[in-house]
Specification:
It is a single chain. By secondary structure, the protein is α+β, with helices and mostly antiparallel strands. About 35% of the residues lie in helices and about 20% in strands. Helix 1 runs antiparallel to helix 2 (about 45-60), helix 12 packs across helix 13 (about 480-490) and helix 16 (about 535-540) crosses helix 17 (about 550-560). About 35% of the residues are buried. Bound molecules: 2-(butylsulfanyl)adenosine. 2-(butylsulfanyl)adenosine (IVH) binds next to strand 3 and strand 13.
């Protein structure tokens, strides 16, 4: 025991005082967080709040032993990360089926009643927040891990970023789990909460005006901004974004439910300190549900955040389980989607853009207007015929619409406002290319005009952009803007020049917004693109009528570029799904001397010209497998690639040559056909079993 009055006694007293003060501060901060975010009734201003945080941080800096993992100061912490880890969800994070109108909503309800053999069912209606779904894991009462939804099975570990959200409690207990369906030993301190991270309209606008004043490109909408903010490698950036959270689902740590009903789960979440949406309602009849949906469709603008519909859920967890899911969509819930949002704005002009194949497309230049949360200043008008059909004149007030993520559209003019207005101009399609001034010609068959100049710089810019796009060679960062800079700056004159960009470092660094780091990343992705299979190159080249499906068919059939180059159009047409128009287009492209030279340069540059052909001697050699319905753990593409990698063939229809039908959820007609032919059928689990028997081991998730 230190003697009273000695220096160590003093230090101990001081520590004790600091500990007490820190506890008081933490309590106050939590109280004000709750008032601010949950009750939306703050008692103190931002300045006062910041002073509390500041004082606590000071104390913790002087007495590091006082820092607790649940201290509010820990919300704004964490070092920048290299990349996010991968998190496997305890139970898949499902998506929702949609109902686009009253009739579809009632059809969903009818199906539910039929499945349950009931005449009524209680439902909970919740606003569908347009943000990003996350999963929060609490262990021993502490917020331990947070992840994005990802593909529903695996998401990204964004714990450090989620810790910066003031509305996510660092410590929580879910209340004792009771009721006949809950296991007696359920641990209330280890559980999972799911919900939506979102931005208010106000915060979205604040961020955008900041970006505008610093000359940065504006964000599209609150949802994308939320996603971008949550996926910041530096938590300090996330912290500066004032992200918000609503909890809408609670489960046990092992993925089971933590309540006997949705309404009970929401009540427990709220009691545990999680923000839940205040506009949730429970109804027994579908008429009331429909009325609720209609009401919020009209009142959505009153909310400080975006909603794109109402989620309707069967309340009782036992009934939910009885209804189950089809693929990734629960039958016990549905999203009633609001129709597109509309706004009126002035049509300032109609301009024409030049596409990758030279097609000229008119688009509307609009006085910027916020529609469905995004600022719209341009909208495609598709073609001349569509402009005529819309009967819009330059100078008109027009109705603009945006539905969810869909690109903005012009619906038509507000005719009542045209009266008395002078100087309105009809649009006429130019007869020359707006980019290179070459003549524009009519395309055979369809109504469009296109620029005939094969050296048109605008076309080439689009081609570069397309080449680098996701479905093509996936060179992230080489988008519209950089393509334009590279083409107009003379840094690339042919697609093969992309692979020589490494030798132009100095020129590249001189470009606006190009720094060392960004350039290194770009060059890395360019290098990586060389290894992509032939099917991706075939998409990337931008051959007319060759999309992903055709490219895959060609690549799988021929296996390598050389064989494809030697094929005649007759040979091509023998491939399922390839008709005369496509085969003509492919042969024309491949025989063109300029294109042959381009392909030779790409090959010399190290671009791969082969595809992943079936591995000989693989565990599925000799099998012709057809996949139908939705699988839970693979997309269609993934399972088909897997079959091929293991040496099997993928069939599109069940025939007498089919050796196995893998049947997921849904998919009735193929199953019927297989039963008729006596073809073996396995469900997803059975297919996994078969793969296991043949020595296949699931690769561990990467990243
Ligand atoms: S429930 C099975 N409730 O909508 C239940 N989702 O398409 C699945 N969302 O990814 C989710 N508000 O991001 C649910 N109150 C709410 C929601 C909600 C927004 C989002 C969520 C999910 C998507 C489903």
């Amino acid at each position: 025991m230190p003697e009273p009055g000695t220096p160590s006694h003093q230090a101990q007293q001081e520590r004790e005082a600091a500990r007490e003060r820190a506890e008081t501060l933490r309590g106050e901060i939590r109280y004000h967080d709750h008032r601010y975010y949950v009750l939306e009734d703050p008692q103190i201003g931002d300045g006062e709040y910041d002073a509390l945080i500041h004082e606590l941080r000071g104390l913790e800096e002087r007495h590091p032993e006082l820092v607790t993992p649940d201290s509010p100061t820990q919300r704004v912490a964490g070092e920048p990360q290299e990349q996010f880890g991968v998190v496997e969800h305890a139970a898949p994070m499902l998506s929702l089926g949609n109902a686009f109108d009253d009739e579809e909503l009632r059809a969903w309800h009818q199906r539910v009643l039929r499945e349950l053999g009931a005449s009524a069912v209680a439902m909970v209606c919740e606003p569908k927040i347009d943000g990003l779904a996350v999963s929060l894991l609490y262990e021993g009462g502490l917020f331990a891990r947070g992840a994005t939804r990802g593909d529903g099975l695996r998401g990204e570990d964004v714990t450090a970023n989620l810790r910066t959200l003031r509305e996510i409690p660092p410590v929580a207990r879910l209340g004792a789990v009771s009721g006949r369906h809950a296991p007696a030993d359920a641990d209330a301190s280890s559980f999972e909460v799911r919900g939506e991270v979102y931005l208010t309209r106000e915060e979205f606008e604040r961020l955008n005006s900041e970006r505008a004043s610093s000359g940065q490109q504006l964000y599209m909408n609150p949802r994308n901004t939320t996603a971008g903010s949550l996926r910041q490698l530096d938590p300090a950036v996330t912290a500066s974004r004032r992200l918000r959270f609503f909890a809408y689902q609670a489960g046990r740590a092992d993925g089971g439910p933590a309540a006997t009903s949705q309404s009970e789960a929401l009540a427990r979440l709220a009691a545990a300190g999680f923000p839940t949406n205040p506009h949730v309602a429970r109804f027994e009849g579908i008429d009331d549900v429909a009325a609720f949906c209609r009401t919020w469709q009209e009142r959505r603008g009153e909310l400080p955040y975006e909603i794109d519909g109402i989620v309707v859920k069967v309340d009782d967890v036992v009934l939910q389980r009885q209804l189950g899911s089809v693929g990734r969509e629960p039958r016990w819930a549905v999203a009633y989607k609001f129709p597109a949002e509309q706004a009126v704005t002035r049509l300032l002009d109609i301009e024409v853009s030049v596409g990758r194949t030279g097609v000229l497309t008119p688009y509307a230049v609009l006085e910027p207007v916020v529609v469905g949360g995004a600022t719209v200043s341009k909208a495609t008008l598709h073609n001349e015929a569509h402009v005529d059909e819309l009967d819009i004149r330059i100078g008109d007030d027009v109705i603009v619409q945006r539905a969810g993520d869909v690109i903005p559209q012009v619906v038509g003019p507000v005719l009542a406002r045209r009266r008395g207005r002078t100087g309105l101009r009809r649009f006429v399609m130019p007869t020359r290319c707006p980019a290179c001034d070459h003549t524009a010609a009519r395309d055979e068959g369809d109504a469009g005009l296109y620029c005939v100049n094969r050296d048109c710089p605008a076309q080439f810019e689009r081609l570069v952009e397309h080449y680098a796009s996701r479905g093509g060679m996936d060179i992230e960062g080489l988008g519209e803007r950089l393509s334009r800079q590279l083409v107009s700056g003379g840094l690339i004159g042919s697609l093969s020049d992309i692979y020589a960009l490494g030798e132009r470092r100095e020129d590249l660094l001189a470009l606006e917004r190009m720094g060392e780091r960004r350039l290194d990343g770009l060059l890395e992705r360019i290098e990586a693109s060389k290894a992509l299979p032939l099917r991706r190159l075939l998409v990337a080249l931008g051959i007319r009528h060759v999309g992903e499906e055709t490219a895959t068919a060609l690549a799988v059939h021929f296996g390598e570029m050389e064989a494809l180059q030697g094929a005649s159009s007759v040979e091509l047409e023998e491939i399922e799904g390839i008709g005369p128009t496509v085969s003509r287009s492919v042969v024309d492209y491949l025989q063109d001397p300029a294109n042959r030279a381009l392909l030779a340069r790409l090959r010399d540059g190290g671009v791969r010209m082969t595809d992943d052909v079936a591995a000989r001697g693989g565990p599925l050699e000799g099998e012709t497998i057809v996949v139908t319905g939705a699988l839970a753990s693979w997309s269609r593409n993934e399972v088909e690639t897997l079959v091929k990698e293991l040496g099997g063939r993928v069939g599109s229809a069940v025939t007498k040559n089919t050796t196995l039908l893998v049947a997921g959820a849904g998919g009735g007609s193929k199953r019927a056909r297989a039963l008729e032919l006596g073809t073996p059928i396995r469900d997803e689990a059975g297919f996994r079993e078969l793969l296991g028997e043949r020595g296949w081991r699931e690769p561990a998730p990467s990243g």
